[in-house]
Amino acid sequence: MMSSLRRVVIIVALLNLAYFGVEFGVAMVIGSVSLLADSVDFLEDTSINLVIAVALGWSATNRARLGMALGVILLIPGLSTVWTAWQKFLVVNLSCALLLARFRTHSGSLTRAAFLSARNDAFANVAIVVAGFVTALTTSAWPDLVVGLGILTINADAARKVWHTARQEHATAAAS
């Protein structure tokens, strides 16, 4: 029975390794965060199954210790996804906001709209990552709902500010 299980676990590991290679290659070519995360998950599954194949002959105590370690290892793909998303989205949005910051009060509503849009995206990225962690820890939908309402609020405030600035520009242009 144990040798049959070991054989199946090794086959599962090899299948996961093969698909990791395919999906990782595609993810890198098209720049997909979700495919990259899923490919890392296939690599994680490969590793876990190979370790399990070896550990099947261990004592019950050592198998239990390995089980606890594997519980921690299962977090790696999620953390990898968060890191990749953080780099891909936040860095770009934060860089854009910083580049536009010095011009946020120049040239009226158009520049203000560009700055507020980039700033709001950076805020939203941070909030989404935090909500993801809190949701994972609590299994509650509230963090996601709160972030969604927060994003709505900062975008509505930005829209109000741009609208107000544009109305002032329009009045000034009409008076000229």
Short description:
The chain has 176 residues and is an all-alpha fold.
Characterization of the model:
The chain is mostly helical and 176 residues long. It is built from six helices and no strands. α1 runs antiparallel to α2, α2 runs antiparallel to α4 and α5 packs antiparallel against α6 (142-175). It is elongated and about 90 Å long. The model has no long low-confidence stretch (mean pLDDT 84).
Order of helices and strands: HHHHHH
SS content category: mainly alpha
Q: Could you name the ranges where pLDDT drops below 50 across 5 or more consecutive residues?
A: none
The description of the largest β-sheet is: none
Quantity of strands, as a count: 0
Global geometry:
elongated
Number of helices: 6
What fraction of residues sit in β-strands?
under 5%
Straight-line distance between termini: 90 Å
Helix content: over 70%
Q: Which key terms come to mind for this protein?
A:
176 residues, mainly alpha, elongated
Write the layout of secondary structure elements.
Blueprint: H1 2-30, H2 33-55, H3 60-73, H4 76-101, H5 109-138, H6 142-175
Helix pairs in contact: 1-2, 2-4, 4-5, 5-6
